[in-house]
Structure formats: structure tokens, C-alpha cells
Amino acid sequence: MNLELEIYLAENYKSKSQIARVLTENWVKKNSYCPHCGAPYLNKFENNKPVADFYCSACKEQFELKSKNAYKIGKNIIDGAYSTMIKRIVSEENPNFFFLTYDKIKWRVTNFLIIPKYYFTPEIIEKRKPLKSTAKRAGWVGCNIKISRIPETGRIFLVKKSHIIPKETVLLKWKKTEFLRHVKIEKKGWIFDVMNCIDAIPNEIFTLQEVYACEKYLKQKYPNNNFIKEKIRQQLQFLRDKGLIEFKGKGVYKKLYK
């Protein structure tokens, strides 16, 4: 995997957005692989396809690419129309998302990660304010993808801080969470909430009491639920059964996805 962007490809473009699109799409086509099945390359859809940018001819997974000039991914990714995004999330046409950041001075990729489509729920989509009446598209409502709300297991890096992650590691991380593909979207809220609570604990080994520290937050989010601790334990058992955490005994657990 070569992290350099081929800047000569953008010589005939003046628009910053077009330059970024041409360079990053070319980089993905030449350097990426399918993080789902491991196929050695991805195919590019024709321009202006409404759903995705790339697809894997082997497993048929589809991928949309978002990129920006930055060293870090950040907490938010600007996306398109809010209503369109919400419709896509609950449909079978929702693609997986590649996020790429690059250094515009060195023209070099700094981060490249995949978020599997089954991690996308309406909760991570933030509605932006409508455009003002003086704008060309007055009233149009865009959205932000709240990366910070996606559990760590759903942020699978292929390149992190200019360091290339081994392909075997990427494929294993994807496989570990693929069970979520079959979980109904309305049931993912509690699963992801408890995942995020676990992610907030800095140590690999953690205790049930440390997860209980999220009880107040979860009670505010689910005010009609009077069994928060019971629900936490239920989700921990689910994550244990799926191989993301290990129960060590006496209220002690270990993260298995680091």
C-alpha cells in the first residue's frame, strides 16, 4: 500500500472538491482491498452513482468514500441530505463507508478506515440547520455523521496515523462484528450504548462496576426503563457470547477487540 497521492492526476482541475475527489478515489482504487472478503482490489462505479463509489466483484459489498484534508478523522464527517441519509440507513442499499484523511502539504494519506454499514443507525446522524432563505438551495437540510458515537469496534482502520495496518488484522476485526448485520436496527441502541461505555474505560481489563458508572447517562436516555443495571448485564452477556469480551469471573471482564 502506497500512501502517496498521485497529484499529477489533478492538473486539469481547479475546484478543490474535484481535486480531492479525483486524487482520493484514484488512491482507493489502486491501494485498497475489500475489508469484508479480502479480495485484492475494488471496482469503481461510474461517476454520480447515487448510492456508492466502489464495489467488490467477489462478495458484492458496496462502499462510499468520504475524504477531507486533515491529520485526524475528528468527531464529525459532513455528509449530504439528512432525509436521504436516514432512508439509506434503513434500506438494503446502504453502503459501507470509507473515511480518508490526507495531508495536503505532503499529499499523503494519513488515515483510512472502514465503518461497516451495520453500525449506521439514525442516532449517529446529526441534522444540520436548514440553509438560509438567501442560499441557492434555501431550506435544504444536510447532516453530519457523528463518528464519536460509533463504538470502537465499528471503526476499522486500514491506515492509522500514516501507519499501515496488516490486512489480516483488518479482516479479523470485520469478521468479529459481522453478527451485527443480522441484528434489527431498533435493537442496536442498547448494544452500541454498552459498547461505548466499555470503550470509555481505558484499561483492557474492566469491572462490572465500571460499566455501571454509565447508569445515570443510560437512565437519562431511557427514562422509562427501571432496570438499567439488568439491561447492562444482559448486553455484557450478549457481547461475551459474540466473542467481543471475555468474562474472567467475579464481575471482571476483558476486551478482546483491541
Kindly describe this structure.
This protein has 258 residues and is α+β, with helices and mostly antiparallel strands. It has 2 domains: 7-175, PvuII Endonuclease, Chain A (3-Layer(aba) Sandwich), CATH 3.40.210; 187-255, Winged helix-like DNA-binding domain superfamily/Winged helix DNA-binding domain (Arc Repressor Mutant, subunit A, Orthogonal Bundle). It has 7 helices and 13 strands. It has helices at 16-31, 82-89, 167-177, 188-199, 208-212, 215-221, 228-241; strands at 43-44, 54-55, 62-69, 76-81, 96-103, 108-115, 125-127, 142-146, 156-160, 163-164, 205-207, 245-249, 252-255. It has a 7-stranded mixed β-sheet. A 3-stranded antiparallel β-sheet has the order 4-8-7. Strand 2 and strand 3 form a beta hairpin. The protein is globular, with a radius of gyration of 20 Å. The model has no long low-confidence stretch (mean pLDDT 93).
Terminal CA distance reads 23 Å
Strand content: 15-25%
What's the number of domains? 2
Helix content: 25-40%
CATH topology of the largest domain: PvuII Endonuclease, Chain A
Rounded Rg? 20 Å
Spatial arrangement of strands, main beta sheet: 1-2-3-5-6-9-10
- The CATH homologous superfamily of the largest domain corresponds to Dam replacing family, catalytic PD-(D/E)XK domain
- What structural class should be given to the helix and strand makeup? alpha+beta
Helical run tally? 7
Question: How many strands, which pairing sense, and closed or not: the largest β-sheet?
Answer: 7 strands, mixed
Estimate the global geometry from the Cα principal axes. Answer: globular
Mean pLDDT reading: 93
Task: Report the CATH C-level class of the largest domain.
Answer: Alpha Beta
Order of SSEs, N→C?
HEEEEHEEEEEEHHEHHHEE
Low-confidence stretches: none
| Number of E strands | 13
User: What is the correct CATH architecture of the largest domain?
Assistant: 3-Layer(aba) Sandwich
